[in-house]
Amino acid sequence: MAWELGSVAKRWMLALAVGSLLLGAEAVAAPVGQTIWLKACSTQQFVSADQNLGATAPLVANRATVQGWEQFQVVDAGGGTIALRATGSGLYVSADTNVGGQLTANRPTIQDWERFEWVELGNGSIGLKARSNGLYVSADLGRNASAPLYASRASIGGCWEAFTWGSVGGSGNWVQVWSDEFDGTTVNASNWVHNTGVHVNSEQQQYSSSPGNVQVSNGTLKLIARNEWSNGYPFTSGRLESAGKREFGHGRVEARIKMPVGPGLWPAFWMLGNNINQAGWPACGELDIMENVGFGNWTSGALHGPGYSGNTPITGQFYPSSPVSDWHVYRTEFSTADIKWFIDGALVKTVTRGEVERYGAWVYDKPFFIILNLAVGGSYPFGMNGASTPYYGVPQSTLDLIRQAPQQMEVDWVRVYQWQQ
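Structure (tokenized):
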């Protein structure tokens, strides 16, 4: 009981301190482009957009730690407002007046309900004012113990409307240990091998080392898909692997890539455990940094391992700030504790070791090699576009696109960093 009284007293003291700052409260520049966490003054817990509670469940301020559901990317929404994109789902936070201003992360685009003013309260605290109704966001313990968030207050009266925040995923002391900048005129054989013998996932291409499918020129690598029959497959393309050449343990791996758009085109930037020949797949572990199946507005990432392979539960869709046909930097950081995905420096997903071990063994404490490839068709594209003709996972529109001009995945560079204390 003594602890409870002390906690309440501290909360009211903080509320009074926040209230004393209100006369100076003003909208200020928000940390646009950063991935952040929010902590409610009322609960001293982190705000979560956990969709395991339901697609229409309100945001709640009841999490003791920051994981994937507790991270939000701050986006410029125009007119001096911001939007918050939940990194766990890629959806925007909305204060929908039809449900009393309840904050829910369930909107794919930004309209007025998804716009907020970022209001500086001083002493490291901020408030959020919803454009939808002109009211402030509150983590109100009066509703229930989880402190659901609602835009329901005409003013910032104290602790319930105040939040602290912090950035997630700073670069720290990363030291570059390897790169391929693709500045030459041929694939660097000390870094890469062509893999022309792989046929998996019902993909429709024959990989080739031909210059028609793999080129290095003008500072970039091009992996090129062509509509030409080879070895019984209707398309040819390219795949490079660093297996046996460049293999890396815990670290940061990133590449600057732009991709073609057309349902069924399947460019990927990913990694496999270097013990695949002994352990097999998926026991070796697979870390998909970036995959795209021909849609211009999203990419995906995933983990495959023992107990969580194929249609893996450890996956996510991510939404770059512009089409995938523009240049973007796709990155992973993996350690003994967790794996993170980033796009253009913004953290889009974190998976902890504990989350993985709910499904099977953690297999990410050994060296992995890097793969760059452009597949055509197959099971993942088919699952998204449903095309069975003219080829599995390849609709007629994409066949016509490739016939008009070969489609290419272009890579500016690949870089690897490791952490130094």
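Residues 30 and 118 are 6 Å apart (CA to CA). The chain is about 10% helix and 40% strand.
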